[in-house]
TrEMBL record:
<dbReference type="Pfam" id="PF00378">
    <property type="entry name" value="ECH_1"/>
</dbReference>
<dbReference type="InterPro" id="IPR001753">
    <property type="entry name" value="Enoyl-CoA_hydra/iso"/>
</dbReference>
<protein>
    <submittedName>
        <fullName>Carnitinyl-CoA dehydratase</fullName>
        <ecNumber>4.2.1.149</ecNumber>
    </submittedName>
</protein>
<comment type="similarity">
    <text>Belongs to the enoyl-CoA hydratase/isomerase family.</text>
</comment>
<dbReference type="GO" id="GO:0016829">
    <property type="term" value="F:lyase activity"/>
</dbReference>
<keyword id="KW-0456">Lyase</keyword>
<dbReference type="InterPro" id="IPR029045">
    <property type="entry name" value="ClpP/crotonase-like_dom_sf"/>
</dbReference>
<dbReference type="InterPro" id="IPR014748">
    <property type="entry name" value="Enoyl-CoA_hydra_C"/>
</dbReference>
Length: 275
């Protein structure tokens, strides 16, 4: 995308770029409908760890090249085999759950991820979605967790996360029927945030990311993201509220907190520096 520069952590099937405070992660295997490959998983793992580690990066956008976001696991060889798997398998020796971290099932970054979907996001494509924060889809996008149609199980977390993100009965319908869900249905069900004309999902996702990165205090955004990640539905409310205080109270002692209140008083745009 215009204005973005490629980073050295890209792989053959996953391009990682940066523009200002925004990282752009593109699944880059359009000839195979962006089906998951070892090189794609390695690239996503690299991206999420860099997002966490680089203080200059404040938010990420995830998308797919071509007319399909992700068709899920490549059933011809699975995510751990096939050509160009050596680097991925070597890294798996160091990080046994690298594939789950890649798919945002484990160890999610403590910074927001904005999703831009064109076309199909099936099986692993919809499972990755559940690890993102704000989701934009083109009007022709199609979602679904279709593992039951292949005698498989959606190990990316859908039987747990999906029922927490949308009503139980709708999650059960998606999982047990394995049927396709249109962008309009996904919007109505609360699975995605916005529907845009075909071809505009990435631009809208980047627009959201740049607003978060350039207009909001980065430490505030990171703390809110951390609280969203760590305080889930299985916690008693009082325990979750106590954890929220631990995460949120330190923000009021930051330089950016003082700058934000001062700028409001002076009726000007705040200059946040991440301190």
């Amino acid at each position: 995308m215009e204005g973005f520069s490629e980073l050295d952590i890209s792989t053959a099937n996953c391009t990682v770029e940066k523009k200002g405070h925004v990282m752009l992660v593109t699944l880059n295997r359009p000839e195979a409908k962006n089906a998951l490959s070892p090189q794609m998983l390695l690239g996503m793992y690299n991206a999420w760890r860099r997002l966490d580690e680089d203080p200059e990066l404040r938010v990420a956008v995830l998308t797919g090249k071509g007319d399909t976001f992700c068709a899920g696991m490549d059933l011809k060889f699975g995510p751990e085999g096939g050509p160009d798997a050596d680097a991925f398998l070597e890294k798996m020796g160091e990080v046994p759950d690298i594939h789950w971290q890649s798919l945002l099932r484990h160890n999610q970054p403590m910074k927001p991820i904005i999703l831009g979907v064109e076309g199909y996001a099936l099986a692993g494509g919809t499972e990755i979605l559940q690890g993102t924060d704000i989701r934009v889809a083109a009007e022709d996008a199609v979602f679904g967790v279709t593992e039951c149609k292949r005698g498989l199980f959606p190990l990316g977390g859908s039987t747990i996360r999906l029922r927490r993100q949308i009503p139980y009965a709708l999650a059960a319908e998606i999982l047990l029927l394995g049927r396709h869900v249109s962008a309009e249905e996904a919007l109505q069900w609360g699975l995605i945030n916005r529907v845009v004309p075909k071809g505009e999902a990435l631009a809208e996702a980047v627009k959201i990311a740049e607003e978060i990165a350039n207009e909001n205090a980065p430490l505030s955004v990171q703390a809110i993201t951390r609280s969203l990640r760590e305080n889930q539905f299985d916690q008693p409310e009082m325990e979750a509220l106590a954890n929220e205080l631990k995460v949120g109270e330190p923000i009021f002692a930051t330089k950016d907190s003082k700058e934000g209140m001062k700028a409001f008083k002076e009726k000007r745009t705040p200059n946040f520096v991440g301190e």
